[in-house]
């Protein structure tokens, strides 16, 4: 029998939970000022606590959103955040109990998917999460980076005052995103902390909007940090948020950033298939310094998730999915170009995989044949893996692009 209990946080316990997270992430003591900025987006609803003798020792939360899947459908999703266990209670089953209760809660809410960004990548696979999107960390040498004369052109870019950014950017994001698999809707609860980065203690973030022939069609939020002691005077620019409705807006925003005076380098996390490098006259100005896991996906309702996305043209394949934590998902599914259907156990499976590996192929980030070669899934024949490759393939790579 455990020496702790899991329950929903009561209203008024949010600050204690956030302070525990601060401590677990080694960020020091939580100040009144910082809590004042975070509290509007840290609500008791959907947050669980682990309590030992009425003392909070761990917490896990989520907020409701929607995630885009191949074909454009938006599925109800729990975005998992605020997960932490106090250092003197780790490795005692607290995290497993919190994550298990949270999964059951998300299922009760009717959410089809859960997603998160992992601070430690070895943790979440055992709860059925798989790496569903990757991103590239890039460093751009501004003086060497010029857009080619044939790069898309048109429109204009304007800077926004902080109050205008707070009003305009959420509406613009809703209009142009989610535009690729893996992207999230951004609910009202997501925005307060981002607003404070324009006008609060963490200020210094600047917003600019691209306007094309049909109106505003892209935006960037960035920050410029001076290189102290550098001669001549230079700075680095960090791109925090950049979304565009099409190639013209994407090129226009990057043209604006690359034309910034007194900036030496630009840094950003972008989709692995970001086409900007091909727009440059000097490809080496766009340096990929790393490729990392970006978002982790947990499929809560396998039949609904498989039925919601579209598939490429190929011969059918039968999957056998195993899910130890949510056994109602375990079973066999026929995937065709026209959709997915659940089958009886008497049908022979061609590909066997866990629900975590299903999450890896679900949005198109990983090829089933590549995962078969590494032992992450079992294919009866190489030809079955090839058919799965074709069916689950996507024209663009998945990317979340929303931090939480």
Write the layout of secondary structure elements.
Elements lengths: L4 E4 L5 H11 L7 H7 L9 E5 L2 E14 L5 E12 L8 H15 L4 E4 L13 E12 L14 E5 L1 H15 L15 H8 L5 E8 L2 E12 L8 E10 L2 H12 L4 E9 L4 H4 L6 E14 L2 H7 L8 E6 L8 E6 L2 E5 L7 E4 H8 L5 H6 L4 E2 L2 H11 L12
Parallel strand pairs: 4-5, 10-11, 13-16
Antiparallel strand pairs: 1-2, 2-3, 3-4, 5-12, 6-11, 6-12, 7-8, 8-9, 9-10, 13-14, 14-15, 16-17
Verbal overview:
This protein has helices at residues 14-24, 32-38, 94-108, 162-176, 192-199, 247-258, 276-279, 302-308, 355-362, 368-373, 382-392, and strands at 5-8, 48-52, 55-68, 74-85, 113-116, 130-141, 156-160, 205-212, 215-226, 235-244, 263-271, 286-299, 317-322, 331-336, 339-343, 351-354, 378-379. It has 404 residues and is α+β, with helices and mostly antiparallel strands. The protein has 3 domains: 5-128, Gcn5-related N-acetyltransferase (GNAT) (Aminopeptidase, 3-Layer(aba) Sandwich), CATH 3.40.630; 136-293, 3-Layer(aba) Sandwich (Aminopeptidase), CATH 3.40.630.30; 302-392, Nonspecific Lipid-transfer Protein, Chain A. It has a 12-stranded mixed β-sheet with strand order 1-2-3-4-5-12-6-11-10-9-8-7, with helices on both faces. Strands 15-14-13-16-17 form a 5-stranded mixed β-sheet. A hairpin with a 2-residue loop joins strand 8 and strand 9 (215-226). The radius of gyration is 23 Å and the shape is globular. The protein starts with a strand and ends in a 12-residue tail after the last helix. 41% of the residues are buried. The model has no long low-confidence stretch (mean pLDDT 94).
């Amino acid at each position: 029998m455990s020496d702790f209990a899991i329950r929903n946080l009561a209203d008024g316990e949010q600050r204690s939970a956030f302070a525990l997270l601060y401590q677990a992430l080694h960020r020091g003591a939580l100040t009144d000022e910082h809590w004042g900025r975070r509290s509007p987006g840290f609500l008791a609803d959907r947050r669980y606590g682990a309590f030992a003798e009425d003392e909070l020792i761990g917490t896990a939360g989520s907020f409701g959103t929607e995630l885009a899947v191949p074909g454009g459908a938006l599925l109800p999703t729990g975005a998992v955040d605020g997960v932490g266990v106090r250092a003197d209670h780790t490795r005692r089953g607290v995290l497993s109990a919190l994550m298990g209760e949270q999964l059951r809660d998300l299922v009760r809410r009717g959410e089809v998917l859960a997603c998160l960004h992992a601070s430690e990548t070895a943790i979440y696979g055992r709860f059925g999460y798989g790496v569903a999107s990757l991103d590239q960390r890039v460093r751009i040498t501004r003086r060497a980076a010029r857009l080619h004369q044939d790069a898309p052109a048109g429109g204009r870019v304007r800077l926004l005052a902080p109050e205008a950014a707070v009003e305009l950017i959420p509406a613009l994001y809703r209009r142009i995103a989610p535009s690729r698999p893996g992207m999230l809707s951004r609910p009202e609860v997501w925005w307060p902390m981002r607003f404070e980065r324009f006008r609060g203690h963490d200020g210094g973030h600047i917003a600019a909007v691209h306007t094309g022939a049909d109106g505003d069609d892209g935006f960037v939020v960035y920050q410029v940090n001076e290189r102290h002691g550098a001669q001549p005077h230079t700075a680095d620019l960090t791109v925090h948020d950049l979304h565009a409705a099409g190639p013209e807006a994407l090129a226009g925003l990057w043209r604006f950033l690359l034309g910034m005076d007194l900036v030496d380098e630009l840094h950003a996390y972008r989709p692995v298939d970001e086409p900007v490098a091909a727009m440059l006259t000097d490809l080496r100005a766009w340096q990929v310094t790393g490729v990392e896991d970006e978002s982790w996906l947990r499929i809560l309702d396998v039949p609904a998730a498989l039925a919601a996305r579209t598939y490429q043209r190929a011969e059918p394949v039968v999957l056998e999915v195993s899910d130890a934590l949510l056994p109602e998902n375990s079973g066999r599914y026929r995937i065709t170009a026209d959709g997915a259907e659940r089958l009886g156990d008497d049908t022979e499976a061609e590909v066997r995989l866990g629900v975590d590996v299903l999450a890896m192929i679900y949005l198109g980030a990983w090829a089933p044949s590549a995962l078969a070669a590494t032992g992450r899934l079992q294919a009866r024949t190489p030809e079955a893996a090839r058919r799965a490759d074709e069916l689950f393939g996507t024209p663009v790579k998945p990317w979340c692009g929303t931090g939480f």
